[in-house]
Amino acid sequence: MSLASYASDPARSRGRRHPEPPAPTRTEYQRDRDRIVHSTAFRRLVYKTQVFLNHEGDLFRTRMTHSLEVAQLGRSIARPLGLDEDLVEAVALAHDLGHTPFGHAGQDALNDCMGPFGGFEHNLQSLRVVDELEERYPLFDGLNLSFETREGILKHCSRANAQRLEAAEPDGVGRRFLDRTQPALEAQLCNLADEIAYNAHDIDDGVRSGLLAMEQLDAVALFARHRDETLAEHPQLEGRRLLYEAIRRMLSAQVYDVIDATRTALQAAGVDSADAARRQPPLVQFSGPMRDQSAELKQFLLRNLYRHPQVMEMTGQAKQVVRELFAAYAADPAQMPPAFAGKANRERSIADYIAGMTDRFAAREHERLTGRRLLP
After folding, report:
1. Is there a domain that residue 5 lies in?
2. For position 312, what pLDDT does the model report?
3. Residue 154 CB neighbours (<10 A)
4. Exposed, middle or buried by CB within 10 Å (0-12, 13-18, 19+), for 365?
C-alpha cells in the first residue's frame, strides 16, 4: 500500500541514536516492531495489570492484551488514511513498556516515592526502557529504535523532563514538548487508539467482574445506542453475547468516526508532509459529537469502576506494596540484583527495578522482604 504524503516514510526516518546499516528485508519501523516484540519488557506485560490485579482473574485485560488491542485498532485506522501501519504498530506495542506493576496505582505510588528524586512518569520510563534498560545488543544499551518510534512512545512529558532530554539529545524527542509541536500522525493515532481500546475493554472487564451492571450502562449514550441497535436486530440476545456485540459496534463506530474526522481535518489543514503535520494542532481526532460521547464514557468509568470501593481497596494495598518495596531497597540495596544495586543513582535504579516487575513478582518480593502478604 502506498503512503500518503503526510505519512511517516521509513525511508526518510530521522534515524537511530546509534547508526546501523539498513535491514535487507524490513523497513526501519518493521525492524522497530520486531525488536519490541522480542524484548524482555514486552514479555513482562502479560503479567502487568490494567484495572484488575493479576490474581483477580485470568480473563481480565493485561498490559499485553491492551497493547495488542491498541495495535489492532491503530492499524485499522491507519490503513484507510494512508499512514504507516508498521510505525503505528511499533508505537502501540511499546507505549506501556514502562508501566509499573499494579497499573496506575503502582505508578502513583512510585511517583510519590520518587518525588524528591525527579518523580516517575510511565511514558518517560517506557522511553528509558527502549533507550537504556534493555540489554540485548553488543554495541549499545536499549533497543536503538528509530526517532519516530521513540517520539511516539513519549506520549506525555513534563517540561522539566523535556529540558533534561533536550540537554542530552539536542533536537531530539523532548524538543516538541518545549516548542509545542505535535508528534507524527502515527503517534497521534496511537494516542487515540489507546483511549478507544481501554474505554471499550474496561466496560467488558467491569461487567465481567460484577462491579458494573448492564443496567448502569443505560446512562452512557455511546454504549446504550449500540446496545439498542443490537436488540432491534437480535431481540433474543442477552448476557455476554449482547455485551460483546454492543461493544463491537461501539468500537466500529469510533474507528469510522476517527477516519472521517481526520480526513476532514487533514484536508482543511492542507498538509503535504509529515513535518507539516507536526506544526499543526492535533489532526487525528474524533468528530465533536463522538468526542463528547467518549468523554462521557470516561467519566462514567471513573465514577463507577475506577473509583469503585472494591477497586480502591485493592489499589490501596497495591500502593502499599510499592511504597514498602521502595523503602526496603533504599535501606538495603543489596536486596536487588547486582546490576541494579551497583548503580550510582540509587533511587532511580530502585525505580527502574520496581517498574520492571510483574504484579505477581512484586507481591512475592514484598512478602519476602516484609514477611507479610498484602495481596493474594
Report:
1. no
2. 86
3. 25
4. buried
What is the number of alpha carbons within 13 Å of residue 172 lying toward its C-beta?
Answer: 19
Residue 217: all three cell numbers together: 450502562
The confidence band for 239, taking pLDDT boundaries of 50, 70 and 90, is very high
Positive or negative torsion for Cα 78, 88, 301, 65: positive
Supply the range of the domain harboring residue 252.
18-311
pLDDT (mean) for 126-136: 96
Phi, psi of 347 (to 5 degrees): -65, -40
Cα separation, 195 vs 297, in Å, equals 11
Domain count, the chain: 1
What CATH number has the domain bearing residue 170? 1.10.3210.10
**Mean of pLDDT values over 20-25:** 95
Q: Residue 24: left (phi > 0), alpha (psi -120 to 50), or beta?
A: alpha
Query: Is residue 321 one of the residues assigned to a domain?
Result: no
Strand residues in the chain grouped as ranges (E): none
Residues present in the chain in total: 376
pTM value? 0.94
